[in-house]
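User: I'll paste a sequence; please echo it back and then give the predicted structure.

Assistant: Echoing your sequence first, then the prediction.
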Amino acid sequence: MYVVTRQQQWATGDSVVEISVGGLDYTNPDALCGKYPGEFREFVSPVEAVEAAIGIARAWRKDAPALDIQIAAGCTMGMTMPFAGEPLTDETFDGLRQWARKIEDSLPHCDECGEPIRTQEHWTLSDYSDLEFCREYCADQYSWREREELEAELAAEQEDE
């Protein structure tokens, strides 16, 4: 899970849009009240979280041009750990997008639909324990297709006899 918050960091007073890895319980405690779409929402996709954070940072900069708004991603491990912000530049945004894409690309993919498995919760089939599925529906689809193919093979063998 990824959560995007706007922070007024206690240690420095910096204004930082933070992308926290781990969900709401892993955000820093100096979060400002949610004002923009996507704040405090738990994202399963790091790519979606980064895009939301970029949108929030741009909107905040527009609303508060006197502030030096920054953006950062990190993991607090459940502690208070302000993230070192970076300026709102295309280079910074590209770096965050690359970070998110690298995470997304490293995830296992569903053996039925091919989508990334973004949560700890996934499904397997007892007959195919080496396969992983993103949801129960995909596991069922795979199982039914395998059963139909097996039945077709058996029917073909019986016709040959």
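Residues 136-160 form the longest helix (25 residues). The mean pLDDT is 88.
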